[in-house]
Amino acid sequence: MPEPTIAQKAPVKVAVEAGKTYHWCACGKSQNQPMCDGSHRGTGFTPMAYTADVTGDKWFCACKHSGTKPLCDGTHKKL
Ligand code: FES
Q1: Residue 79 belongs to what domain range?
Q2: What is the pLDDT of residue 11?
């Protein structure tokens, strides 16, 4: 598995809606962080689907190394 690109070493807050599905960028190359914009083509990565269980703010991983993808677990502090 190739290493993902670190888009930034801080999470991105997104206001999600319950029941709505989002496509998180796993490769780190999207220009629309933290979500996929199709830039993963040819990288070996594919986006990860995330369906919100509740409406509210969620912190999505942008370093792409979180152990709880697509959400931040603080791993960016160790990179
Ligand atoms: S642009 Fe990164 S997974 Fe699609």
Answers
A1: 1-79
A2: 98
